[in-house]
Amino acid sequence: MPIRIYKPTSPARRQTSVDTFGDITLKRPERHLIKIKKKQGGRNATGRITVRHQGGGAKQYYRLIDYRRTKYDIPATVEAIEYDPNRYARIALIKYADGEKAYMIAPVGLKIGDQVISSKKPTEFANGNRMPLEHMPLGSLIYDIEIEPGKGAQLVRSAGSAAKLMAVEGNYANIKMPSGEVRLISIKSLASIGQVSNPDAMHIRIGKAGRNRHLGIRPSVRGKAMNPNDHPHGGGEGVNPIGLKAPKTPWGKKALGVKTRKKNKYSNKFIISRRKKR
Questions:
Q1: pLDDT (tens digit, 0 to 9) for every residue of the chain, 278 residues total?
Q2: Most-buried pick from 6, 133, 187, 247 (CB within 10 A)?
């Protein structure tokens, strides 16, 4: 996916880059595979803001993506590569041999006319094909990984990401995640072959505040610019430091460098090595 950089006709345009959408082959989504996406503005059922900095944004339809792909051993043909406003990755419209259509997250290199298949048996090692980890060769790049067999893809779904199959030992496979973490996943879990499409998405620069508003992101105010009763960093005359040993959230909890993972989380036993600190 090429990225377009404009001539600097204004201060905002100087910093802005956009997607060319050159890989998109169909503009309108499949009608029966979308639903209305309601906006909550960060508010809960009682109307209180529980997630800050949300609101507004362009109207979007949610694409119903098939993360399970349970139509086993039925080949499907790729009919279109589409844009999805809910993610940076591209999605592929596939049509099964029995006529049913579905959406899947497209891997790099998938084209119109290609055939993909999902199976619990060993199948062809090709982009977009889906099979259990036990049937994949070591060193494979994979995405759309199930944490538990039959639960549907939950891991490695963002644009440009890919995990690596490191080893298979007993009932578990060693998977190296995009973050560098190595964890155990059941060999019966399904995964798709390839790397998630649109790897250049990480290089897009928003450039100006208005584009963030279109994405539904409202402005955030620095704690230092607030009053003492609104934030622990607030108050003081002129430009002052926060006056604390460590930064805090508006609610008084430490904000940076604090471990948030529960000590007794059920999945701790499946993590062989944690990701490297950056």
A1: 689 998 999 998 998 999 999 999 988 999 999 999 999 999 999 999 999 999 999 999 999 999 999 999 999 999 999 999 999 999 999 999 999 999 999 999 999 999 999 999 999 999 999 999 999 999 999 999 999 999 999 999 999 999 999 999 999 999 999 999 999 999 999 999 999 999 999 999 999 999 999 999 999 999 999 999 999 999 999 888 999 999 999 999 999 988 888 999 999 999 999 988 76
A2: 133
Query: Which secondary-structure segment (H or E) carries 192?
Result: strand 190-193
Q: Sketch out the chain's domains with CATH numbers.
A: 3-202 (2.40.50.140), 221-278 (4.10.950.10)
Nearest to 273 by CA among 188, 187, 175: 175
Q: Token pair of 223, please?
A: 């704690």
